[in-house]
Prior knowledge:
By secondary structure, the chain is α/β, with parallel strands linked by helices. It has 13 helices and 9 strands. The strands form 2 sheets. It has a 5-stranded parallel beta sheet. Helix 7 links the parallel strand 6 (180-184) and strand 7 (209-213). Helix 5 packs across helix 13. It is globular, with a radius of gyration of 20 Å.
Amino acid sequence: MDLKLRNFITLLDYSQDEIDYLLNLSAKLKNDKYLGKEHKVLSDKNVVLLFQKDSTRTRCAFEAGAQDLGMGVTYLGPSGSQMNKKESVKDTARVLGRMYDGIEFRGYKQRDVEALADNAGVPVWNGLTDQYHPTQILADFLTIKEKYGYLKGINFTFVGDARNNMGNSLMIGAAKMGLHFTGVAPKDLWPEADLINTCKEIAKESGATITFTDDKMAGTKDADVIYTDVWFSMGEPDDVRIKRIKQLVPYQVDKALLDNAKQTVIFMHCLPAFHDKYTDVGRDIAETYGTAFPKIKAGEMEVTDEVFESDKSVVFQEAENRMHTIKAIMLATMRGNDE
């Protein structure tokens, strides 16, 4: 399997065999790290991390992974480049592609990461856009494999805003790898019909099923995995927040929902999660919306603290796996199998 010079923009671009290869490589790199085996095989390479949106896990995973591989790393934060300000995305790509051997982008528009990939001449990796979050899905699937030993046939339920980048990307990943995907959300928060239909066509080959329901108990029945994500992004206006909370409070992942799934169910979240009041945002949520919505008066939104801190929760194993899977993506797309 040679993925040299391939971009990593969406899992729609990768076959089941290619995704499986990346997961196996991730597991090997993780094992090597635990055994203390050095693998600085890209010491002649340099990468740049281009961030329009701040992140803990994505930045740390790319930086630590690149350094483990021996690479130099440059971080450009939200105010660190002229892209989309004084310089077009196309021109930025052509500049950075001549200085670096790989480019990571985390931002807003999917067309921006696609423009980088079209013009850079080096591998470009999507660290998150409003439409897709493919590196997160590899970490999620590696975690599921570590817990269950397999992916094909897993009953995977996503609860919440199923039309966001995580809902889109998890559905694509499930369709590719043969998981039975169920989206549990209000009907106006389901993904676009074209993407659902695309995934259903992919699922015919993998044996996956793609289902959506607004019935949370039916949707979580017999689930092996229950996954949720934040309900809105920071910076959205108050009227949008209130509408989204009203829609999604009934879909909060609590113990009753977890108990409705299989006894062996695991809880997953891409983080950060609003599960308590020990953050500025958590306190703001509790103070601003707790009176109108008593279920979130403790700062608990998409998941309760009881579930988040339970022995069913694998969120920190999942977070660690961001580094190992991102390292595999960089290694496979920069080195390939010919060196």
